[in-house]
């Protein structure tokens, strides 16, 4: 099985939408009834792309995006910001265009649970959404407190910067403040769920930790 990358995800969701258009992916509403609803959990690159493509290719459905945060900092341009080629604002996006240009209903809340049998999503706070089709693109997150002495508070200064959030601004300030010849410590990426690091087999060796 080929690995699904971010680059191929957009093509995959487009092909999925085009194929499904002729196969009644969404149930037809009863006469005068409400439109079918597609719910997407997660407003990162994958979730926002899926929501946009569904809204573009299925005019007869309602698309709802559930995302806890009101903005998304793109990790794709993280290095350009750290290198001083782009500003943090230029790599940070909100969700207004998804609503205004594509008619996507964006709910800024945290999904707390999914009931596949009833086809509902429970939101943190008590609200419940029903769906006809569901896309889950929750992305990554962290379990704080698993390393002695390293918790969420420490991470504000000793950054992991794996998510393109406010931590990259801290990292950039620290790098900018370094004097020539200063010491920079880089730790290799953690192992994935299968125990293997997500790195091509033909990639050069990991840089040494100094």
How would you summarize the topology of this molecule?
Layout: H1 6-20, E1 37-41, H2 45-57, E2 62-66, E3 72-73, H3 78-82, E4 92-93, H4 96-102, E5 105-107, E6 111-115, E7 120-123, E8 128-130, E9 133-136, H5 166-176
Parallel strand pairs: 1-2, 1-9, 2-5
Antiparallel strand pairs: 3-4, 6-7, 7-8
Structure in words:
It contains five helices and nine strands. The two termini are 37 Å apart. Helix 1 (6-20) packs parallel to helix 2 (45-57). The strands form three sheets. Strands 5-2-1-9 form a four-stranded parallel β-sheet, covered by helices on one side. Strands 6-7-8 form a three-stranded antiparallel β-sheet, with no helix packed on it. It has helices spanning 6-20, 45-57, 78-82, 96-102, 166-176, and strands at 37-41, 62-66, 72-73, 92-93, 105-107, 111-115, 120-123, 128-130, 133-136. By secondary structure, the protein is α/β, with parallel strands linked by helices. The chain is elongated, with a radius of gyration of 21 Å. The chain has a domain at 6-136: 3-Layer(bba) Sandwich (FAD/NAD(P)-binding domain), CATH 3.50.50.60. It is 24% helix and 16% strand.
Describe this protein with a few key phrases.
alpha/beta, FAD/NAD(P)-binding domain
């Amino acid at each position: 099985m080929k690995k699904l990358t971010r680059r191929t995800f957009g093509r995959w969701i487009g092909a999925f939408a085009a194929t499904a258009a002729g196969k009644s992916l969404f149930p037809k509403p009863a006469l005068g009834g409400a439109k079918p609803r597609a719910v997407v959990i997660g407003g990162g690159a994958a979730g926002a792309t899926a929501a946009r493509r569904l809204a573009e290719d299925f005019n007869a459905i309602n698309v709802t995006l559930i995302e806890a945060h009101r903005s998304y900092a793109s990790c794709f341009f993280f290095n350009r910001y750290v290198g001083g080629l782009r500003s943090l604002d230029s790599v940070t996006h909100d969700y207004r265009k998804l609503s205004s240009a594509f008619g996507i209903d964006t709910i800024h809340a945290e999904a707390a649970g999914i009931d596949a049998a009833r086809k509902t999503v429970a939101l943190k706070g008590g609200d419940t959404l029903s769906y006809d089709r569901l896309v889950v693109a929750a992305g990554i997150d962290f379990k704080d407190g698993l390393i002695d002495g390293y918790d969420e508070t420490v991470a504000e200064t000793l950054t992991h910067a794996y998510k393109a959030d406010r931590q990259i601004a801290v990292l950039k300030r620290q790098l900018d403040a370094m004097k020539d010849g200063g010491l920079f410590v880089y730790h290799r990426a953690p192992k994935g769920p299968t125990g293997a690091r997500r790195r091509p087999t033909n990639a050069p060796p990991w840089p040494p930790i100094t």
